Amino acid sequence: MSSITIIAVASGGAIGATLRLLINGMVNKHFAHALPLGTLAVNLIGSLLIGMLFAYFHQNSTFPPHLKSFLVTGILGALTTYSTFAIESFFLLEAGHYMQAFANMALNLFGTILLAGVGYLMVLNFTK
After folding, report:
1. Per-residue pLDDT of the chain (128 residues; tens, 9 = 90+)
2. 47 with 113: CB under 8 angstroms?
3. CB burial of residue 33 (10 Å; 0-12, 13-18, 19+)
4. Which of 78, 81, 53 is nearest to 67 (CA)?
5. CA–CA gap between residue 16 and residue 43 (Å, rounded)
6. What is the pLDDT of residue 33?
7. Would you say 118 and 52 are in contact if contact means Cβ atoms under 8 Å apart?
8. How many CB atoms lie within 10 A of CB 28?
9. Count of Cβ atoms closer than 10 Å to residue 90 Cβ
10. Which residues in the chain belong to E strands, given as ranges?
11. Using an 8 Å Cβ cutoff, are 89 and 101 in contact?
12. pLDDT value, residue 128
């Protein structure tokens, strides 16, 4: 792995982590709810964007690898968060909030897969 790729991932990670903090805080402030909507928001947004990027990369094979790493592993890797989703779901279960826990799990699991596919197909269909 080249040093430029490492720097690209690290700098993208700083951007993604900052975006996660800002989006999570904004969503939780404006949409107070029993579900952890901030985590859901960053996971859904990140999934849509990764689908779009992979479709773009599929069509543009000459896209520089270190820029792919910057965008996907760096920014989107730090923006989205499986570990936070997992612990928030566990806390909901532990507190006996089973409906909210299962809603959170279903929305994160199916919503992220759906939006990754939507983003991918959107770019493929709009760039023909």
Report:
1. 899 999 999 999 999 999 999 999 999 999 888 889 999 999 999 999 999 999 999 999 899 999 999 999 999 999 998 888 998 999 999 999 999 999 999 999 999 999 999 999 999 999 87
2. yes
3. exposed
4. 53
5. 12
6. 85
7. no
8. 15
9. 11
10. none
11. yes
12. 76
Which of 126, 115, 125, 123 has the alpha carbon at shortest distance from 63?
123
**pTM for the whole structure:** 0.88
- For residue 73, give both structure tokens: 């592993």
Q: Output the six-digit token pair for 97.
A: 């909030």
Total residue length of the chain: 128
Give the separation between CA 24 and CA 9, rounded to whole angstroms.
21
* pLDDT at residue 103 in the model: 97
**Cα distances (Å, whole numbers) of residue 68 to 7, 10, 59:** 12, 13, 13
Q: Which residue has the tokens 């993208």?
A: 12
Inter-CA distances, 107 with 35, 45, 64, 123, Å? 10, 13, 33, 23
Tokens of 109: 């699991």
* Dihedral, 9, 66, 51, 111 alpha carbons, nearest 10: -10
User: Residues 122, 99: contact at Cβ < 8 Å?
Assistant: no
